[in-house]
């Protein structure tokens, strides 16, 4: 096995994980995201009320593939791993309650780097009143971060599933669409020092946020189907439309690139519609509902009989998305 | 980023993950361990009965560090990832109900290899009446397998925790101790073709098994504390003894190496007591109880006032264990 050299930013000084050892490293991580549930063979989470169901999802991120140390701080890497998973929980209409973290780290990883990563996780889980309840840290050639999120689905309403969109419903969205992809394009073009005023796009990529409880609110106010914009708007909605046996028509004006995206498009020589339609990684909650847009959501399209996804009744100009391999 | 070349065994022919693409690879994996819970943003697991608590734990395994492709089949790698996690759930006195799988795979990974890995997972989860309910597959330089297990802790009894051993209790064990480390020594010495009759030791390392429900049975018959033999018998029991504020004295005869281990020790020039005391990875459930040994358990020691772990009243000859970094 060859050694892949990972270059950690110079500001992460102090002992490496190999110098400090596993137990001390775990203590450092737990201190950044403390939880009374932590510290045994497994974490015992909660006494579930009647009708409560447990929800689980997992995501893995690999250095050089899903994040780069020259573009993202460890706080951002940790925070994004949480948001990716919690968005999947919210997209079921459930409440994220816990996360576990597995990290493969090169032996030369500074402990201060992992502490910062755990700090970023702690900041995000607290926003959701959730806990980091356990984990595993192992040696690996390539920095790899795997988070599994546990959610609680209360009440008697069904979860928000991909197969439950119905003709006549509106498609609603809570959050930005295309900002993450615009930010990635700026990072590729400029590195972390993007043109003034466009940091919001960079940060949308390196540090996405979602508004906690939007999934629960959508579910409690009549939404039936939901997903999040993770692989690309058209790709993700095509999956939902196919599972539900419907067509979705997006409102061109409602998803049009904003002024920041238009400027970023000019600077990088990209059609900003590509970011909107094929971008992904915004983790914006997309739901279908027969009622008005729930609090925090706006209408961006309509569900009808048929199949596939259109924009203003036409085939989308960009329909690609994230490709894992 | 340099490319780390992973050599897959020649029998795994057919398309690679890069050739087949993510969606088709996921279908192949799901077919090997099918579950009705799979296929949405997150998996909705179950309606928890009153008093039920959810338990969660995670483990990560990296090629070259935790397993080697020349020693372990993909079926064994997948199965071992399940057992490592389910043993942690059992060690809480809970029932494993679900697992999620995250895999980082080099782009040249044959799909047939991942299918075999998923098949090994499917074989193990079925033994526990559990399901593989979701996952993530991403590209990475180094094959990395991360499993998170979800368990259900029913009834009103507390979980089996590290801090609940009490003086006067017996220490009981369900399963072999030291076999996995003996098998690892044989693999290092001979490769996969170990001397005839000692395959049982090799398989204990590459394909550990635990007897489902032993944790629940221990908890329902009066055990209060438990852990599993994962990092090393002395290391794991020292953690339990320290958390509980007690000492544990092991019965030398009850844990003595068996004939297979003595033979493997002679062949490899190793004191088999090292495997017993420092070996780990057997995932044998170790519990403390004031009552008689529960069904499937045998008595291997006693809990008393004091601190630390002894063997027949003396300091153990070997007290090391697994070192992550």
Automatic annotation (TrEMBL), chains A, B:
> At which positions is Mg(2+) 1 bound?
58-59, 136
Q: Which reaction does it catalyse?
A: thiamine phosphate + ATP = thiamine diphosphate + ADP
The residues listed in the UniProt record as binding Mg(2+) 2, with positions renumbered to this chain, are 59, 88
Where Mg(2+) 5 is bound, by residue?
231
Instruction: Tell me which Gene3D superfamilies the record gives.
Output: PurM-like C-terminal domain, PurM-like, N-terminal domain
Which keywords annotate this record? ATP-binding, Kinase, Magnesium, Metal-binding, Nucleotide-binding, Thiamine biosynthesis, Transferase
The UniProt record lists the EC number as 2.7.4.16
| Single biological process term from Gene Ontology | thiamine diphosphate biosynthetic process
InterPro entries of this UniProt entry?
PurM-like_C_dom, PurM-like_C_sf, PurM-like_N, PurM-like_N_sf, ThiL-like
Query: Which residues of this UniProt protein bind substrate?
Result: 66, 281, 322
Q: Which residues bind ATP?
A: 135-136, 230
Enzyme class comes to: transferase
Q: Reproduce the miscellaneous comment text.
A: Reaction mechanism of ThiL seems to utilize a direct, inline transfer of the gamma-phosphate of ATP to TMP rather than a phosphorylated enzyme intermediate.
- Its family? Belongs to the thiamine-monophosphate kinase family.
Give the protein's function: Catalyzes the ATP-dependent phosphorylation of thiamine-monophosphate (TMP) to form thiamine-pyrophosphate (TPP), the active form of vitamin B1.
What NCBIfam families does this protein map onto? PRK05731.1-4, thiL
Q: What is this protein called in UniProt?
A: Thiamine-monophosphate kinase
Species for this entry: Corynebacterium frankenforstense DSM 45800
Q: Which gene encodes it?
A: thiL
């Amino acid at each position: 096995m060859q050694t892949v050299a990972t270059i950690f930013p110079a500001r992460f000084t102090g002992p490496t994980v190999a110098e400090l050892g596993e137990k001390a490293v775990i203590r450092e991580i737990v201190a950044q995201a403390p939880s009374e549930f932590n510290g045994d063979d497994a974490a015992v989470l909660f006494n579930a009320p009647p009708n409560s169901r447990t929800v689980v999802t997992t995501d893995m991120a690999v250095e050089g593939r899903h994040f780069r140390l020259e573009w993202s701080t460890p706080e951002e890497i940790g925070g994004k791993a949480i948001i990716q998973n919690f968005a999947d929980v919210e997209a079921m209409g459930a409440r994220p309650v816990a996360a576990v973290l597995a990290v493969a780290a090169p032996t030369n990883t500074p402990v201060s780097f992992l502490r910062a990563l755990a700090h970023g996780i702690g900041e995000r889980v607290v926003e959701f009143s959730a806990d980091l309840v356990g984990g595993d840290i192992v040696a690996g050639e390539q920095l790899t971060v795997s988070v599994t999120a546990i959610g609680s689905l209360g009440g008697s309403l069904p979860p928000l599933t991909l197969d439950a969109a119905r003709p006549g419903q509106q498609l609603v969205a809570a959050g930005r669409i295309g900002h993450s992809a615009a930010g990635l394009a700026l990072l590729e073009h400029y590195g972390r020092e993007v043109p003034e005023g466009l940091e919001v796009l960079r940060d949308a990529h390196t540090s996405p946020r979602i508004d906690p409880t939007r999934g629960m609110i959508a579910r409690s106010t009549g939404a039936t189907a939901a997903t999040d914009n993770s692989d690309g708007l058209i790709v993700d909605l095509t999956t939902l439309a196919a599972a539900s046996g419907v067509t979705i028509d997006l409102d061109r004006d409602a998803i049009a690139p904003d002024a920041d995206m238009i400027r970023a498009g000019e600077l990088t020589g990209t059609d900003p519609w590509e970011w909107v339609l094929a971008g992904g990684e915004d983790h914006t909650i997309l739901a279908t509902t027969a009622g008005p847009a729930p609090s925090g959501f706006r209408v961006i399209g309509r569900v009808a009989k048929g199949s596939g996804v259109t924009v203003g009744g036409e085939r989308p100009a960009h329909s690609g998305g994230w490709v894992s391999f």
